[in-house]
From TrEMBL:
This protein's name: Uncharacterized protein
Domain of life the protein comes from: Bacteria
Pfam families: DUF5999
Sequence segments annotated as region (Disordered): 1-23
Protein species of origin: Streptomyces indicus
């Protein structure tokens, strides 16, 4: 699937999130990586910010 040189890590590799994004939708909080992994951004808000 990956055409990059050097190739991106496979979906089974421990460093799979290092693959390059092929589709990115930061406004929706996700990206599709070239190895087929869907990467979701998780925003955490601490209680010290008074937003929880």
């Amino acid at each position: 699937m990956c055409q990059h040189t050097p190739p991106c890590p496979t979906a089974e590799a421990s460093d799979r999130e290092a693959a390059r994004p092929t589709v990115a939708h930061p406004e929706q909080g996700w990206s599709l990586l070239c190895n087929g992994v869907l990467l979701f951004e998780v925003m955490s808000i601490s209680q010290s910010q008074g937003l929880v």
